[in-house]
Amino acid sequence: MDVNGAAAARRTRGRVVMLVDNGVKGDSRVQKSARSAAEAGWEVILLGRQTGPGETSWRLGDAEVRLLSVPTDVGDPAYVRRRSPRRPLAYPAGGRYVNYRLDTMKAWRADIVARMARLRTGQAGGPARLLEQARILANRVGLAIVWRWVRFRARETRLLRDGRRDPDAWTNRLPVVFWKALLGNRSWRRLDPALWQWELGFGRVIDELEPDLIHAHDFKMIGVGARAAARARRDGRPVKFVWDAHEYVPGLRPLTARWLAGQVTHEREYAQHADAVVTVSTALAELLRDAHKLPELPTVVMNAPVMTPGEEESGAPVPDLRTLCGIGPETPLLAYSGGINPVRGVDLVVEALTSLPDVHLAMLSLHPTAHNKGAEELRLRAVELGVADRIHLLPYVPHWQVSRVLASADAAVSPLHHLLNHEIALSNKFFEYSHARLPLVVSDVRTMSEVVRSTGQGEVFRAQDLTDFLRAVKLVLAESEKYRAAYDRPGLLAEWSWEAQAEILDRLYARLLPHAPGRELAEAPVNGLRPDPALSASPR
Questions:
Q1: Helices (H) and strands (E) in the chain, counts
Q2: Closest Cα to residue 272, out of 289, 285, 255, 251?
């Protein structure tokens, strides 16, 4: 695609290249950021990732989305590929060889079975038959011996892999301490070299696009954005770099000790290179300012829902939640949206249904293309408790429909456990529940419980406390209109809308690029007519 030709199609305030480490369609914050910035007159090109080769592109409102192929060959560090003294008989190469060896054994066994079948049905006799029987017997003995050896090594490989994933094991903590002491914030290059895959996949494309502003979403893209901005400035282009911190990285669940330390040091190396930092809540903004010694408090752009979807979005039919559940308007219905895993606390809600005999639970939680292990485990637990007929696991809907779909429920739940990232943020679901005007039942994680108590829009319970959860649910179901009345407060839902947050983001862009045309100039007709595409171009 001729990007410069596309830019000339309308007058713009400058070219913004956004970066994200996923396929875009499941990331509502990224979609909303790109669409609203493009509507405000910026030329937006959003770069995301696809798993296959080549490149895919489409339009998101006035923004362009391009999914790039990202190499994965740098994904396994050297310590995974070599033999380990902990399990010297484990297969090297991170266990990739295991499946090959096991499949080879299965193929060998299939060959023996086929040869035995031919021998039984064949006409040959005498010495030829005896010779073939001897060969098959030798193969069977050989397979039995090798099969046991391969299975033993496969087990050793699995144990080594599990051991490497234990973040508390001293054998995993020691290399982290060593590399951090030796290299400081540069140690991510040894702890998680897979972060280079984003540079290899995105770097050249960013340079070719020659952006005026780079907006990097989340922690994996901060290095890519910072390095691209540095290259542009070296070449004489005064690019601005915005880092959008979606969560507090030290508070993430560690996949491995090396992985988490790698993400933390990677973020620390590049955070101060951002011209501006954006994040999702005031509490997280304060943490980031203190952790990275930022010169100013990051700009808060909350993850609020869109009040007015685009034309192509608003025309799609909105499913009715109660129809999807197969229940009528008189049945008490709790709603939940979002992922299912132990720290989300949804198992508590399922258990509570045993004491709420008439209540149903609707969950917008199923990814349309991925197997959800958490959902399957939850379903099995519901069967054990005898409440499976009152739990309705439903697929996700587009982000602009979530509040409208949930609106027919009687209340919404957010039973998060106490984790640092849960304490400091207002989640997507909080705002989606609010725009559905639902009474809320939320755990006492700090930020969300403070807001709920201050607005009166719901009840707070002690996280992981079944008795207290039941108390809160019964209160909101008994007096739902009292809690819904909190949403009548003037300006509350307007402030919690993406439209309001988009204005904040637009003002930030304008502050960073003070010489760019204003929105009114980008949108205004020339002599009563729209600008001639042949005469307008993105400012360089």
A1: 24, 14
A2: 289
CA 465 to chain centroid:
28
pLDDT of residue 74: 64
Confidence at residue 38, expressed as pLDDT on a 0 to 100 scale: 96
Q: Which residues contact 271 (CB under 8 A, 6 or more apart)?
A: 222, 243, 277, 288, 292, 294
Q: What is the pLDDT of residues 512-532, one digit of tens each?
A: 999 888 876 555 443 333 333
Q: Torsion angle of alpha carbons 354, 357, 361, 366, nearest 10°?
A: 50
Residue 283 near residue 425 (C-beta atoms within 8 A) = yes
Average confidence score pLDDT of the chain: 88
Supply 426's token pair: 């207002």
Digit-coded pLDDT (tens) for 112-148: 888 888 887 766 667 877 888 888 899 899 999 999 9
Token pair listed for 169: 């094991």
199 neighbors 114 (Cβ within 8 angstroms): no
The span from the CA of 184 to the CA of 168, in Å, is 21
> Rounded distance, CA 310 to CA 433, Å?
21
Arithmetic mean of pLDDT, 153-175: 80
Q: How many whole angstroms separate alpha carbon 369 and alpha carbon 371? A: 7
Predicted confidence (pLDDT) at residue 535 exceeds the cutoff of 50: no
Distance CA 350, CA 388 (A): 9
- CB contact burial 473-504 (16+ within 10 A = b; e otherwise): bebbbeebeebbebbeeeeebeebbbebbbee
